[in-house]
């Protein structure tokens, strides 16, 4: 069939944006942007314009509704408001992995869960030992979590030389790490509990779960409930970002039609579109714009696509770019700007905080991940990822020491910068986190590059790594499109 219209050159805006879109598709792209934001923040905070940097994030904001007024700073809005969206995406990833990913079976989840446990316990213990009884003691949770964007970004730089099984293991490990970090924040880094607000949060969660059961699939409905839930959790004393994770667990994962129904409907719609296209060819005056049959078939395809794709997947894809290239870099810009006043940081408590955060990530993470993984395999609880060696797994443990985003977030909770001592300890923690994350990223890349030099790639593996907020990895087998597939577990 001849072309309906001659090929037209892409508009100017498409040609301009094409390189940026190609960059955004790279697995390491979000990590590069995050790193760039951190470098800008550090340079700005130590420049002659440092006062402007700190003043910017302390800009007061106010919202007045009737007699009620809400006041906050720009820094607070980023950390407690926008980061709730980041945690929402984390929650979506956790739910997907538990229902249909590496954490969906006891056998598949055992090794990354045990490894994540070791990667949390050992770093926290190292930090606690160095800061026991001192003002830096509340920061024990700082070196516990892995930054999935940076870790997967470094791994992506190694390309096919890293077995797919190791990539999936690191992603599942980071997701399990995030589960632990969310629990630590909710339990240990929240304020006194307001029982009434906590009860309202429970009611709103039940409302979201009820909407799921009733078949509500529109994102705006869950967004409206989510805003109310965020406010209720904020007032309750539990950290507001936990609301994002809780809401994510209520997002539907079921499809309205099966794959075979989608294929049949799509084929029929495309055949009707093709038939209408022949009419357009015979009359050049009729275009897609004026062809009502084209309109109808395109709308039918849109409806089929909406019905076959779970809302959880659609939301995850829609928010991936916003979180990876918007919220996370903005968080880094607002939080990585540590003043490198080495003289002030030589104080005993500050030094202990820096050493605790740094050694927790540099030593505690690799040792904890590797040791607990070895014990799990030795006891028969788990098995090494396909194509992996113990040497390569040790390299994954090193990359687990990249604790950028979550570590900085917990540091801000452990040491509120309202006082001089709090700001000093926070700066000390940031220096430890930034230094350790840089070293583990570079050393992990060099080590894995050597450890996988003679390792064949997993050619033909059905596994695939996909980035999303953070992104994560999932294993998907070949689908049998000729038979009705089983329903997705969960809701």
UniProtKB/TrEMBL annotation:
InterPro entries: Na/H_antiporter_dom_sf, NhaA. It is a multi-pass membrane protein. Na(+)/H(+) antiporter that extrudes sodium in exchange for external protons. GO terms for molecular function: sodium:proton antiporter activity. Residues 456-491 are annotated as: Disordered. It comes from the Bacteria. GO terms for biological process: regulation of pH. Coiled coil: none annotated. Keywords: Antiport, Cell membrane, Ion transport, Membrane, Sodium, Sodium transport, Transmembrane, Transmembrane helix, Transport. The chain crosses the membrane at residues 31-53, 73-94, 106-128, 140-159, 168-189, 195-215, 227-251, 318-338, 345-363, 392-416, 428-448. Belongs to the NhaA Na(+)/H(+) (TC 2.A.33) antiporter family. The keyword Disulfide bond does not apply. It catalyses: Na(+)(in) + 2 H(+)(out) = Na(+)(out) + 2 H(+)(in). Residues 457-479 have a biased composition (Low complexity). It comes from Roseisolibacter agri. It is found in: Cell inner membrane; Cell membrane. GO terms for cellular component: plasma membrane. This is Na(+)/H(+) antiporter NhaA.
